[in-house]
Amino acid sequence: MPNDITAIEDAAEVLGAARRIVVFGCSGGGKSTFSQKLARVIGVRYVSMDREVFWLPGWMSRARSEQRQLIAQIVAENHWIIDGNNPSSLDLRLPRADLVVWVRMPRWLCVWSIVKRGFMDRGKTRPDMAPGCLEQMPDWQFISYVWNFERDDVPEFMEGIRRHGASVPVVQLKSRADMGRLLHRLDPVD
């Protein structure tokens, strides 16, 4: 991708100045945890698309038109980190973004993380989810989605970046160590 930032030092410099950041990546990759920490470090609003846009209590999906309206309201603000996938909303998010952080962990790690999360948090609502959306053990459909994310979803994200955010810098984080190093550069005490 033409605007890739590959060095952690360069990513930290761009992140330190960015005030509107889109974070996406495969479920289980750690994007929500990273986004929450990053929002705290740079002092901007953290927005979980799962909690604030996609889901109503009890795993009821919000209407697509309402989702788009909420996203448009959020991106009109001056400072935010939006954590979530949904490539169909990149046309709203990317034109306002200063930076994209693509959490691109190995698929085995993502699968391991969603299974572990299912065991550890079963019956609880995670902080990045809407109230009443209780964590469940992942079914085969969700595991397959995670396993095939790179093949099935990444082309749509790449096309969305090309069409709606060609000039937006992109940082790809491919390991937990990359995430830690980047956060440490921004806030050595974190």
TrEMBL record:
<dbReference type="InterPro" id="IPR027417">
    <property type="entry name" value="P-loop_NTPase"/>
</dbReference>
<protein>
    <recommendedName>
        <fullName>AAA family ATPase</fullName>
    </recommendedName>
</protein>
<dbReference type="InterPro" id="IPR052922">
    <property type="entry name" value="Cytidylate_Kinase-2"/>
</dbReference>
